[in-house]
Amino acid sequence: MDIQLWLQNTAQYLNKTWGLSPVFATRAALLIAYLYQYSLSPRITSGYRSPEYQQQLTARYNAGDKSIVVKPAENSKHTLTFNNEPASRAIDIVTSNPEVAAQIAKAVNVNAGYYFKTPDPVHFYI
Ligand SMILES: [Zn+2]
Fold it and tell me: What pLDDT score does 73 carry?
């Protein structure tokens, strides 16, 4: 398939299915293309989250739920909206090598939670 078409289709999917903002969806599509290229087996686990869901995650984290690896942020880029539509500027992607994934993200102008003081190896954002 034509790469440009793949990127467009993927960006649309990230926007419609995962609630990413149009701008971030385009950049995240490029990131995902490279993650495949480097055989990092990318698997999306989270995009847009409603404020209610984000609060649930925080409550579960505070209650000691070990499946929530990193404390959910109070002002998360996962909960952003624009004109009442989901417009997340964050996506969580599990990969086989978070360090290489973070380096790739840097190269395509996407920030990586891998570099946080408390690393969040699946979190990518703008
Ligand atoms: Zn995240």
Answer: 86
